[in-house]
Design a protein that fits this description.
The protein is mainly α and 177 residues long. It has helices spanning 14-27, 34-39, 43-58, 64-77, 81-93, 98-102, 115-130, 135-145, 147-170. 67% of the residues lie in helices and 0% in strands.
Length: 177
């Protein structure tokens, strides 16, 4: 159960209603998810967080499959059920199989993942759990995806770490839909 009440549309300020409308249009949803309702307890924060999410989802040069491997990894490592479940369908749309999604926790010795996949997963895992990556891993990932995409990947991992930690601390409930 959520630790703080959600801001529902019927009791939301005009600023928050506008945010809800924008979010629904951007992500083609009929209602906003609980994460939006939770962060809308601070409308200015929500108004800054969700455009960044939109950037990563729709404008970033990073391959969406690479992004979703990283997001699923960090959500798994941080035990963020909400974030993990919400990204399953997104990951599937990028070509990640359900078997890969289910096996992300045991990727290292799995034949389901390519060597390149394992580099991305390891990068997300280390950055999430250690707060840093070693020079060799950094070099290998940079070689595979390029400098600009490495910056994008690092920023995406950092962004979704923030989201996972908010979701966990505030105990945001997974929607039934």
């Amino acid at each position: 159960m959520a630790r703080i009440p959600y801001v529902e549309r019927d009791t939301a300020s005009p600023e928050t209603k506008a945010l809800y409308d924008s979010f629904s249009q951007q992500f083609k949803l009929r209602d906003v998810p609980n994460v939006v309702k939770m962060l809308s307890n601070s409308p200015k924060l929500a108004g800054r967080v969700f455009p960044l999410a939109d950037y990563f989802m729709h404008e970033s040069t990073l391959d969406p499959r690479v992004r979703e491997l990283a997001v699923l990894t960090l959500m798994d490592r941080l035990n963020c059920k909400y974030g993990f479940v919400r990204h399953i369908s997104i990951a599937e749309h990028t070509g990640i199989s359900r078997a890969q999604i289910d096996g992300i926790g045991a990727y290292a010795n799995s034949s389901l993942f390519t060597a390149d996949d394992k580099l991305i997963i390891k990068y997300a895992e280390d950055l999430t759990l250690k707060g840093q990556v070693d020079d060799e891993l950094f070099r290998q990932v940079k070689e595979k995806i390029g400098q600009a995409n490495l910056v994008e990947l690092t920023a995406a991992i950092s962004f979704w770490n923030m989201m996972a930690r908010n979701l966990n601390a505030l105990q945001v409930d997974l929607e039934a839909w």
